[in-house]
Model the fold of this input.
Amino acid sequence: MSWGSHRRNTIITVFSIIALLIIGTYLFNVLYVPPNCFDGKQNAAEAGVDCGGSCELMCKHQVIEPIVHWRRLFEVAPGVYNVLAYIENPNPTAGVDEVAYKFGIYDDQNVLLQERTGSVKLPPKSIVPVIENTLAAGKLNAARVGFDFTSDLVWKRRESEVPVIVVQDEELIDEDSNPRIQAILQNTDIVSVNNVRLVVILYDRNDDAIASSSTLVDRVPANGRVPVFFTWPNQFSTSIARFEIIPIYERSPR
Done:
């Protein structure tokens, strides 16, 4: 091979290599997808497939399942019941934005009389009373209530929030005739809070829940106070040792 042919082949080879590098770099930049939380792989600093690490989604082994401490039914009229499940999310940095649930009331033969479905949010480090009112059993008597989550619990990284709705000046009056609970809602935030749902639970001396109720407050103004009331038509069958009022609300986005 002559010197000229050798030189020409060398130049062609160099330009071919440069062209391949340029094309390869372009294709890499176009086609390469960096590790992320939605690629179906455990990569980067993830603790599982698309969960843990920097991902919003938490892995199941990183969280404690919610605790259903108890479930009760309360007869509010002949054949009509309120039902309540007392749930705790013990995780300080993980919450569930929405999970479906189902209540069922049953007679003493375990026959389903009525069921009610809904959905609930489980914020971090919180007690969540799930309540459904006025389930009718007809002429039959309900003997027990069942409660189950009916969709997957999708845990996401969430931070606990300092409560801004505070319940003050709670008082139970007329316990021996027409019981009534009154209280004041104090909003400690500089913006109003809308749609505050309040759940009240009453306990006897054995700390068993014997009654419950709920109400909705449309708006608690910024740094404002709103009175709330719960009433029952008849006195309770046993003395009330204590009660708790739990507010449930979403803070307005900043």
